[in-house]
Each structure stands twice: as structure tokens, then as C-alpha cells.
Design a protein that fits this description.
The chain has 190 residues and is of the alpha+beta class. The chain contains five helices and four strands; from the N terminus they run H-H-H-H-E-E-H-E-E. It has a four-stranded antiparallel sheet with strand order 1-2-4-3, with helices on one face. The longest helix is centred in the first third of the chain and has 60 residues.
């Protein structure tokens, strides 16, 4: 007869997921995310220092260039009638002078010096400027006044030397004279 075998219940392990595939994918995904994060940080650093900063410098330089160019155009507009003004200036100042005449001292400075040093002391009948020499003819004055004028002109550092010629008047008094002063302005003939 047959013996009846009792069926014992055997507990076998049971698996509901496959670990082998799922663990590798999760580990690979984590590693890919870490690598991607490091790549993005490096990309941001590269973009900041190698792209954005140089572009900002270029934009700043371009803005400075545009400002300078606008300023240059403004100056050009202001100087657009320069040739006309230069022609008017040459007519007034004497662009007709030769190079030798241009090398002489400024005539207006010479005349201002005469006005400052002589005009307040005695009347001036005439002033003649030739090269760097000024000839001043005074009105009637005394010899003391002429001596005073010569002292003033000698003390003026702009003059090399002064010579005086006097002419006596026909009046009864011999004290009054006309003076002819020849002033050699500094640098004459040099």
C-alpha cells in the first residue's frame, strides 16, 4: 500500500523584482547625473569667463569708441568753417609777412610794452616798428622825463637796449625837447 506522503509546506524564497538590471541602471543614472552636474558647472564657469566677460569688455570698448567718435564728429562740425576763419585771421594778422618777418617778435606785444612803459609818462607822436626795433617819437617834454623813460625801458627785461636822440624846441626855454627813442626789443636779429 501506499504510504501517503504528507505534503509539507516548503517556504521557498520569492522575488518580486529583478535586482540585477535595476541596480545597474540606478547606479548608472546617478553617475550620469553627477557627471552632467559637474559638466554644467564647468560649462557655466567657461561661459562666464571665456564668453560673457570678453563680450562685456568688447561692448564697453565699443561704447567708448562710439562716444569718442561722436565727440570727434562734433569737433569736426565745430571746425567745419576753419578754413574761412583761418583766411580771415591771415588777412588781419598778416600772413603776407615773409618767414624772416614772422620770426620777429609779436608786434602787438611790442606796442603794448610801449603803451605800458611810455604812454602814461609822455605823449607819443608816432610809433614805428621795423624788425625787432621800435622807434618812438614823443611830444614835447623835459630832459628829466626823457631820462625817466629811458630808466623805465632799461629796467624792462624785454628790451636789449635803448638809444635816445633829442631835438630842442624853438621856444625860449631850452628845457623842452622832442625825444626820438630807439628801443631794441630782445632777440632782434637772432
Amino acid at each position: 500500500m501506499a504510504k501517503k506522503v504528507k505534503k509539507e509546506k516548503i517556504n521557498l524564497p520569492s522575488k518580486k523584482t529583478i535586482n540585477f538590471i535595476s541596480d545597474r541602471t540606478a547606479r548608472n543614472n546617478r553617475m550620469a547625473l553627477i557627471i552632467f552636474g559637474v559638466f554644467m558647472v564647468l560649462l557655466l564657469i567657461f561661459t562666464k569667463f571665456c564668453v560673457l566677460d570678453p563680450m562685456a569688455k568688447v561692448a564697453k570698448a565699443e561704447a567708448a569708441y562710439n562716444q569718442m567718435n561722436a565727440q570727434l564728429n562734433e569737433y569736426r562740425n565745430q571746425l567745419s568753417d576753419y578754413d574761412k576763419v583761418q583766411d580771415e585771421y591771415n588777412e588781419m594778422v598778416g600772413s603776407f609777412l615773409t618767414e624772416t618777418e614772422l620770426s620777429y617778435n609779436d608786434r602787438m606785444d611790442m606796442i603794448r610794452m610801449v603803451e605800458k612803459d611810455i604812454k602814461d609818462v609822455v605823449d607819443i607822436q608816432s610809433i614805428t616798428v621795423s624788425n625787432n626795433t621800435i622807434r618812438v617819437t614823443t611830444g614835447m617834454t623835459t630832459m628829466d622825463t626823457v631820462s625817466h623813460i629811458v630808466g623805465i625801458l632799461d629796467a624792462d627785461s624785454r628790451n636789449s637796449y635803448v638809444t635816445v636822440t633829442t631835438t630842442q624846441t624853438e621856444r625860449d626855454s631850452s628845457e623842452y625837447v622832442y625825444a626820438d627813442l630807439i628801443i631794441n626789443y630782445s632777440g632782434a636779429g637772432e
